[in-house]
Design a protein that fits this description.
mainly alpha, disordered N terminus, two-stranded antiparallel ribbon, 183 residues
Amino acid sequence: MTLDPSPLEQSPLDQPAEARNPQAQIDLQDLDLDPFETAILPILRHFLAAVTAPETQSWHIAYATAAERWGQSVGLAIAHGLSELLCAIHACREAPVTHCDALALDTRALLTADEAMILLMIRYMRRDNTERARIAVENVTHGRRDASVIRAGLKFAQRFHAGLSRRPGDPAPARSEPLRIVQ
């Protein structure tokens, strides 16, 4: 009897970098991202658009989107952390990061291989999954273990850590003592 592998074991990381087509469209749901990781995708895309076409000033939209979603204090910190990470990634790669248009409705739920690798790298770093994070960093940086990418990724992951995640249907964690009313 064989068991179905978990979604993490079926990730695009299991394919060698050469076998992945950077333009391939990956379904967002296939990555098993949490709501936070899914929500940073449009912000990530706006920053990537600003890198590839600076005249668009898409970074303004990235910061505005983050502030609108999470409020100024948290949203701007999220956007800034992503910006630092993407700048580090861009600086160490020879080829630009392929990405979908942030404003295109038909690609909202689709990812390029590069976008998927960045989101998976963030996912694994936020969950302290060191082995998978290392593989993701190598895929994102095309084989380099760039210190600035690792530093920016870990800084973002530490600030916006996933904590203990529960799936729907999982029992709530046991409390050490029951809640009581204090007057």
